[in-house]
Amino acid sequence: MKKLVQWTFNKAGYSLVKSPSLEAERRHAPSVTSLPDIDAQSNEEYRQMSERFFGKGMPRDLRNVKLASIYPENDEFFQRCFNALLQTEAEFVQRLIDDQAAKGVAGSFVEFGIYQGAWIDRLFRMTESAGLTDRAIYGFDSFKGLSKPHDRFDVSFWKEGMYAASRAEVERNLNIAERPRIKLIEGYFKDSLVRKEAKAVGDVAFARIDCDIYEPAKECLEFLSKRLTHGSILVFDDWTHDYGVGEGRAFAEWIGTVPHLNFKFLFLGPWDHLHLRVLHRDKTDIF
Ligand SMILES: C[S@@+](CC[C@H](N)C(=O)[O-])C[C@H]1O[C@@H](n2cnc3c(N)ncnc32)[C@H](O)[C@@H]1O
Predict the structure, then answer these.
(1) Residue 57 CB–ligand 1 contact under 6 Å
(2) Which of 146, 169, 195, 212 to mutate to test the pocket of ligand 1 (most atoms within 8 A of CB)?
(3) Of 96, 179, 195, 105, which Cα lies nearest the Cα of 137?
(4) pTM, rounded to two decimals
(5) How far, in whole angstroms, is CA 172 from its chain's centroid?
(6) What's the domain count of the chain?
(7) DSSP state at residue 62
(8) CB of 142 sitting under 6 A from ligand 1
(9) Which residues contact 104 (CB under 8 A, 6 or more apart)?
């Protein structure tokens, strides 16, 4: 049964490293308090900032909302519920991509932090299904796991080297040899994002930030500042529900540097997957 659970998680794009029990551990990880400038720790401050940032006053206790069940993780019924949630999220993302195709949203698809390639594989199949077979899909990764988390701006759950998968393994998983529109760009973001091959990425229609921690998330956002197109989608895979740490902090610091952009809440999926629409302020919102 354990093998079946492992297989189901992997197939769905999750590893047991991110299992509900560890998710629970993250939930109880101490959040950093007393931070300068964006110390939005109370529920009400968080709600107001979210309203200002992307038009949705979210409560902080949505953190880790996914599945609560009296059934244990390895129970078949639990698995069916779990898979249904994942399937619903995938269908929602497919719908967003279909809509982008219909409305002519330009740009490549990019994932920052690809691990074994589950989401990038999914993005490949989703773009095929939407008829976007001309779009490049970029996957940025160190292939060495997480860089060093920040002493103050990341919670202690994250450790350097977590989620390491070799490039060879990822290339095999993604069948790169037969899918030339998937392009892998190797290295820690601080190095890879300034290289020539990254500069060639051009406009971006869909960006997933899944590097888990503050500094790399900020580096990716800075890379995206001038690339995100009108109508593009920005996904945070590990939304912290807290503007003091992690991806939430990176976003809160970055948003002031992109006054030409507007953000609209779309969807909060299981496992803190926050989906935002990116709009150019000087263009009409047709979404
Ligand atoms: C949680 S995993 C990504 C999961 C993946 N998106 C999936 O679909 O399963 C986080 C990834 O971010 C990468 N990563 C973290 N910090 C990085 C950095 N500073 N530079 C490059 N890659 C980084 C890790 O190597 C790891 O593959």
Answers:
(1) no
(2) 146
(3) 179
(4) 0.86
(5) 22
(6) 1
(7) G
(8) yes
(9) none
Q: What is the dihedral of CA 115, 109, 210, 120, to 10 degrees?
A: -30
The 10 Å Cβ neighbour count of residue 77 is 11
The residue to mutate among 10, 115, 222, 273, having the most atoms of ligand 1 within 8 angstroms of its beta carbon, is 115
Condensed to tens digits (0 to 9), the pLDDT of residues 236-278 reads 999 999 999 999 999 999 999 999 999 999 998 888 899 999 9
For residue 136, count CB atoms less than 10 angstroms from its CB and return exposed for 0-12, middle for 13-18, buried for 19 or more: middle
As a whole number of angstroms, the distance between CA 225 and CA 220 comes to 9
In a domain, 285, yes or no: no
For residue 110, the domain's CATH number is 3.40.50.150
Separation of alpha carbons 80 and 186, rounded Å: 36
Return the exposure string of 191-202: e unless at least 16 CB atoms fall within 10 Å of the residue's CB, then b: ebbeeeebeebe
Range of the domain at 110: 2-280
Query: Is residue 287 domain-resident?
Result: no
Q: pLDDT for 24-80, tens place per residue?
A: 333 333 333 334 445 546 888 889 999 999 999 987 776 665 566 677 778 888 888
Least confident of 8-22, 40-54, 172-186, 188-202: 8-22
Rounded to an integer, the average pLDDT of 210-225 is 98
* Residue 19 domain flag: yes
The answer to whether position 132 is within a domain reads yes
